[in-house]
What does this fold into?
Amino acid sequence: MNRFVQPIPPPADPYASDALLRSWLERHLGPAGHAAAKGRLADLAADVTGPLRAAHADAEAHPPTLVRYDAWGARIDRIDTSAGWQAQRAAAARHAVVALPYLPDARGTWGAAARVVQHALLHLYGPESATFSCPVAMADGAAALLSSPDADAGVRDAWLPRLISTDPATAITSGQWMTESQGGSDLGRSSTVGRPAADGSWRLTGEKWFCSAADAAMAVALARPEGAGRGSRVLAPFLVPRYAADSPLAVGAAADAPAPGVTVHRLKDKLGTRALPTAEIGLHDAYAVPLGDPAVPGLVRAMTLVVVTRVHNAAAAAGGMRRGLAYARAYADVRHVAGGALASSPLHRATLGTLAVDAAGAFALAGHAFALLGRVEVGADPEAAAELRIVAPLAKLATGRLAVSSASEYVESFGGAGYVEDTGVPRLLRDAQVLPIWEGTTNVLALDVLRALTREDAGVPLLSRLAAAVDLARPLSPVLADTLAAAAAQLGDTIASVTVDPGAPTVLAGARGLALRLAYALTTALLVEHAAWGDEQAELAARLWARRWLRREDIAEDAHHHLDLLC
Ligand SMILES: Cc1cc2nc3c(=O)[nH]c(=O)nc-3n(C[C@H](O)[C@H](O)[C@H](O)COP(=O)(O)OP(=O)(O)OC[C@H]3O[C@@H](n4cnc5c(N)ncnc54)[C@H](O)[C@@H]3O)c2cc1C
It folds into this structure.
């Protein structure tokens, strides 16, 4: 008897097959700008469907290991990573996924929209990166911090070129050492202390509990300058060289030995992000240089980095959702059930169509955050800065949750095969679950949104975007315009009422609900803007998104009918 073996289609080109990504680039970059980006995007897409897929599988199958001692008993704390992880590292540099927005020729070609091109690169790269997207995000955050006028020019010149190098032989990434065991969200309890040394450098002592990219050449660590007092505001960012090669305190040590005072206690055994080395790291009088004046409260400076990593998190969520959708759709085309292709089942089509609406919304939200970030960095646009203040946490929290719910559906859409490791499908779910946790959980970000609304008037730019989108929606669909107008009015009332007593228990209890409603309304507006520019898929996605997330209606019937336009 012949044994049935399910044929699996080769992965589609993620750039050529993503109509929403392409039209988004056409709108934000203009035809000439998009044409200028096409070579880069096509090259990366070709790598993603070939060598990087294989590198991803290799990196997942061979997680990092910590070698604490050499043969003679010397402490070496070496983190060994797989060939796949190294291939991902090289690809990230070669394709400029960190560097692009800092490169003078990219800024010359695309101006502020260099960040839009970078988002497109991340959208393609992230899902097959074995979560190398995490070191990429932190390297970008460190590069942004080093680029700020606060950073010492000597420190910038020594480190920034390495972070934004496109040569795999010289490119480095960065870690970000913030979380301590007594407090990740509650940074006010941080106990790592910084002491000035005679030569103007500093020494850090403390314990860091979650340090991803623990093999990176440097980290940005938060520490409390000695005598600075309590609370989180005074915490200051410091650059810590990870290896002896970059530490002036290391005399006669091998270049790849840990910098004196930096000890890797152990690697975390995690649910997902398995290829990514995440360590517990001890600091004992470790050499560090301040990023900005440590005498000036530094948490605000560190936010430059955090905003960047939050928008990267949104990109990772949206990119993963889009790739999961592509896999599930391709599988449905070849898998047969009840006498026909799974893709012809109205019920399965409705499931995939609903996921496609969520993927489109997440993409627009992440894309908008990158567009704003570019405008802040190039031209110091104050309106963009005011909007980014609230869009960064909103994009991160809303896409993180959508990524988890979508990934669960993608796994289910493969049936039993989706639960089997070597199909590569389970990692979609494992790797999605970190997205709502790190860089601020949903609730922690919801409180940040509440602070932005009540202390910084961040509702103003958001409500004005919603009002403009209502006008744009009117000629497309009066129902859509009315839905968005009603949501905006309700949000305006809620923002006014929470501002009266932001600390009231009922206000705090409702912070997550408010943040999500804001994110859903903003996403509708962003899809409407793209639809008004002339994108048919965005128009459909806007209508279905508004029904699903603003009116809480079941969109199965339309999702089934229009699946082919949605993905
Ligand atoms: C895979 C992975 C990689 C990571 N990499 C890094 C890294 O490289 N660098 C780094 O610094 N950190 C890293 N982290 C740590 C991560 O940022 C923290 O775990 C996260 O910020 C949450 O902090 P916590 O673990 O202390 O949880 P807690 O802050 O204790 O949170 C526990 C629960 O309390 C809730 N909570 C907290 N505060 C409030 C509040 N005020 N009101 C209501 N609810 C609240 C949270 O929502 C959560 O549900 C990583 C985490 C993971 C899982």
Q: What stands out?
A: The mean pLDDT is 96. The radius of gyration is 24 Å. The pocket of flavin-adenine dinucleotide is lined by residues 175-179, 183-186, 210-212, 270, 273, 278, 434, 437-439, 441, 443-444, 447 (CB under 6 Å). The first helix runs from residue 19 to 49.
